[in-house]
Amino acid sequence: MMTDTTAMFWPMIAHAFLVFILYYLLSMRRGAAIRDGGYDARQFKENLSEPTESLLVHNNLKNQFELPMLFHAGVLAIFICNADNIITIVLAWIFVISRYAHSYVHITSNRLLLRRPLFMLGFMVTVLMWGWLAIWLATS
Questions:
Q1: How many separate domains does the chain show?
Q2: Tell me: the pLDDT tens digits for 43-87?
Q3: What's the distance, CA 124 to chain centroid?
Q4: pLDDT per residue over 24-44, tens digit each?
Q5: In a domain, 17, yes or no
Q6: By CB count within 10 A, which of 2, 44, 87, 92 is most buried?
Q7: 106 contacts 63 by C-beta, under 8 angstroms
Q8: What is a single Pfam family found in this protein's UniProt entry (predicted)?
Q9: Is residue 57 within 8 Å of residue 104, measured between CB atoms?
């Protein structure tokens, strides 16, 4: 049973807010590095060197424009093709929750033993969503 709602968009909005949070945190950490005297604001003009205080946030922010782009494209394609259902909506929320958890680990402890499984969960969810879209298109 396909849905006739916009429920698929809420996980995308939630992920966008994660990106906004990360940009804010990056700005705060860079500002702190400048105020502490270790960095000059002009160093960010070409961004050849990232302060230690903001490096993990900077790296995590870049991650939000890799796998998540496939997620966003998949969500839009699923919605446009009317292939969305409760399972795709739940998968989309699992993806977003995995990104929040991945980001938290990445910008705090950065423990790969925690970070990698969280990434793989989001990866597998994205594969399942695209797989469902392919099945839907092939059988419709």
A1: 1
A2: 888 887 888 889 999 999 999 999 999 999 999 999 999 999 999
A3: 14
A4: 999 999 999 999 988 888 888
A5: yes
A6: 92
A7: yes
A8: MAPEG
A9: no
Domain hosting 40: range is 9-139
Token duo for residue 70: 């496939």
- Residue at 60 is within a domain: yes
Which amino acid, residue 25? L
**CATH code assigned at 69:** 1.20.120
| Rg over CA atoms, the chain | 18
Whether 133 is in a domain gets the answer yes
Q: Of 90, 64, 94, 78, whose CA–CA distance to 131 is shortest?
A: 78
* Residue 37 φ/ψ, nearest 5 degrees: 90, 0
Instruction: Match 């590095």 to its residue by tokens.
Output: 33
Residue 86, domain member (yes or no): yes
